[in-house]
Amino acid sequence: MKYITVVRKLEKTHTCPFCHEKSENMLREGKYFFVIPARAPYVKHHILIVPKRHANLLMTLTHAELLEMHKLVDIRTKKLHSKYKDVSLLLRDGLVKDPLISKSINHLHFHLIPNVGIHIESQIKAENRSWLDDTAYTKTAQAYKKTFL
User: Fold this and answer.
1) Measured on CA atoms in the order 141, 102, 60, 12, is the torsion positive or negative?
2) How far apart are CA 89 and CA 73, in angstroms?
3) Which pLDDT tens digit goes with each residue over 53-79?
4) Model-level pTM?
5) Tens of pLDDT along 2-17?
6) Is residue 127 scored above 80 in pLDDT?
7) In angstroms, what CA-CA distances link 146 with 10, 28, 89, 139?
8) pLDDT reported for residue 102
9) What H or E segment, with its residue span, contains residue 37?
10) Domains of the chain, start order
């Protein structure tokens, strides 16, 4: 299924996919954050770091949350660097308002993306990404756990 189709459906029902994440898909779970494979990955081994509580802005995180987030970013980046030369960190915060920004989820999250540049042309490809069904997503999570834990 196309990513944009799923996002539009979620918007209509006011459902936040990150607030309903299943534990079996989590690569790591901390007190404040969890790490998951991207459900609509740009590339293989694209992972997300997401606060457990629904937050939209980085500046609303507590000091304890920021410390845990930094630790998870550091650990996951090192793991990805063991396999890839380059890792991009992309922060997605704020509210979905401007269609030119191509932000689709109203929940703060961080992308860790190996070996891919993030630039304006990515917006065109972003809408053409596929959304992994539940079975494929859980299978991906299990495979990532073996690779990155």
Assistant:
1) negative
2) 8
3) 999 999 999 999 999 999 999 999 999
4) 0.76
5) 877 877 787 788 788 8
6) no
7) 30, 12, 22, 11
8) 53
9) strand 33-37
10) 3-148 (3.30.428.10)
Contacts of 125 (CB under 8 A, 6+ apart): 42
**47-51/33-37 β-pairing:** antiparallel
Query: Residue 95: which pLDDT band, with cuts at 50, 70 and 90?
Result: low
Helix (H, G, I), strand (E, B) or coil at 40: coil
Q: Compute the distance between CA of residue 106 and CA of residue 16 in angstroms, rounded to an integer.
A: 7
Listed in sequence order, the DSSP H helices in the chain are: 3-13, 63-81, 122-126, 134-148
The two tokens of residue 79 are: 């793991």
> How far is the C-alpha of 108 from the C-alpha of 93, rounded, in Å?
5
Average pLDDT over residues 98-106: 60
The number of beta carbons lying within 10 Å of the beta carbon of residue 32 is: 18
Instruction: Scan for tokens 């802005």, then name that residue.
Output: 57
What angle separates helix 134-148 from helix 63-81, to the nearest 10 degrees?
Answer: 80
Structure tokens at 146: 């073996």
- CA-nearest of 9, 12, 43, 18 to 115 is 43
